[in-house]
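User: Good morning. I'm curious how zinc ion would be positioned relative to this chain. Could you predict the structure with it bound?
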Amino acid sequence: MARRRYWARSHLGWRTIAGATPNGGHVAVARLQRGGLVDAVITQNVDGLHTAAGSAPVVELHGRLDEVVCLDCGNRVGRQEVDRRLREANPFVAVFCGGGQPGW
Ligand SMILES: [Zn+2]
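Assistant: Good morning! Here's the predicted structure, ligand included:
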């Protein structure tokens, strides 16, 4: 039940995360890193925006939302693909969230 609840909420929130872009803070940290003033970024963020801004290396303590790991076999799948599968399996979701693409 907890996993179903997680995926239902995560499915609805993914569109917001997927559309996020680095802000000035992410860019500033990346500049400090390129300038040799910061060795690495350690973050609890799961949005991948430090990497998108150009930081490297980035240690993501809680992983990333744009990649899904199968708990049975360890296979990794891009979140866009998981999102496509969830939309296909749950076309009724648009009724509740009021948005999404045709076919939701
Ligand atoms: Zn698997």
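DSSP finds five helices and four strands in the chain. Residues 2-96 form one domain.
Let me know if you'd like a different ligand tried.
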